[in-house]
Structures are given as C-alpha cells and as structure tokens.
Amino acid sequence: MVKFLLLALAFGLAHAHAEIEGKWVTTAIAADNADIIEEGQPLRLYVRELACTEACNRLKFTFYTKVNGQCTKTKVIANRQADDQYRARFEGDNIIVPVYVTPEIIIFVVQNVNRTGRKTNLIYVLGKGQSLTSVQYEKLEEFAKVQNIPRKNIQDILATDICPK
C-alpha cells in the first residue's frame, strides 16, 4: 500500500490539481497524538473545498472547526515548497503532502508542529460524502501503521459533521 501511495504521489502530482479542486468532505482523520483530533479539538477539520491557484503553487483549504457545538469557517492557504510539499500556518506550522488523489478520494499526510513545539503526524482522508468501504478502511489502517499512527487513533468523522455544507 505504501509503495502504491508513493508511486501515486510521484506519478500523479503533475495531473492532480484538476482532481484536487472542488467540493470535498472529511471522511476520516488519524493522528499519532489523538487528543488534537478529538471532538472539539483544533485539528479536527471538516473540509469543504479545495482550490488551486497559480498552477497549484497555492492550495486553498476551506474548512470548519467545531468547538462547543459551534462551527467556525476558516480558509487557509498552503504554499508549495521546492520539494512539492505544501506549507501552511494553522494551529502551528504544517507540512502537507497529497499522497493519493483520485476524483473520489484524496489522502493528505500532514506534519503539524504547534506553538509549543509538539509534533503530530496526521492523515486526512477527503471524499465526496460517503464513508470509507471496508477495503478502503483496511488500506487506511495499513497506511496509518506505516506512519506510526495506532489503529485506535483513526476516526471516521462523517457522523459528527454538523457544519454547513
């Protein structure tokens, strides 16, 4: 699975921006420090839209966070770096890599370093509003293991997404 994802990254990024743009919904999140993706926490992001500008050198994320049941809309711009990773500031410094992109699903790997220097490795799975199939979930579990994220830290978040579409 990991070799497949890396191959998809190397082969697909040149064509990925057309598939990245559009309406998306966060399907699942995983993190090695699970406390920051729990309900009401800052990196539990309910993504709504991705937009590329400047030949996808800038990637705009539109998403909601939810604290105390209140949804707050946020837009963050990530800038492409020389190594084809994106960098953005939100709840610290973030390195963002789209590792798998199809018209139906996008998987991002994110490394967040918060204001206190705590590093967290995350996986965000975006889709078109459906839950992951059992096969997709198994592949996510395998990928999370390679990223040193425990299986118990994978969260299907569609059920808790009450923010505006």
Features:
165 residues; alpha+beta; Lipocalin; ten-stranded antiparallel beta sheet; 2 helices; globular; disordered N terminus
Q: Give the N-terminus to C-terminus distance in angstroms.
A: 31 Å
SS-derived structural category: alpha+beta
Strand order of the largest sheet: 1-3-4-5-6-7-8-9-2-10
Mean pLDDT: 90
Task: Tell how many strands the DSSP assignment holds.
Answer: 10
Number of domains: 1
Instruction: State the CATH class.
Output: Mainly Beta
Count, helices = 2
Instruction: Find the CATH topology.
Output: Lipocalin
Percent of residues in beta strands?
Answer: 35-45%
* Computed CA radius of gyration, to the nearest angstrom: 15 Å
Could you explain how this protein is built, in words?
- Strands 1-3-4-5-6-7-8-9-2-10 form a 10-stranded antiparallel beta sheet.
- The chain contains 2 helices and 10 strands.
- The N terminus is likely disordered.
- The termini are far apart.
- By secondary structure, the protein is an alpha+beta fold.
- It comes from Microtus ochrogaster (Prairie vole).
- It is found in: Secreted.
- Its main location: secreted.
- This is Aphrodisin-like.
Walk me through the topology.
Layout: H1 2-20, E1 22-23, E2 25-31, E3 46-53, E4 58-67, E5 70-80, E6 86-89, E7 93-101, E8 106-113, E9 119-127, H2 134-146, E10 154-156
Characterize this entry briefly:
With 165 residues, this protein is α+β, with helices and mostly antiparallel strands. It contains 2 helices and 10 strands, in the order H-E-E-E-E-E-E-E-E-E-H-E. The protein has helices at residues 2-20, 134-146, and strands at 22-23, 25-31, 46-53, 58-67, 70-80, 86-89, 93-101, 106-113, 119-127, 154-156.
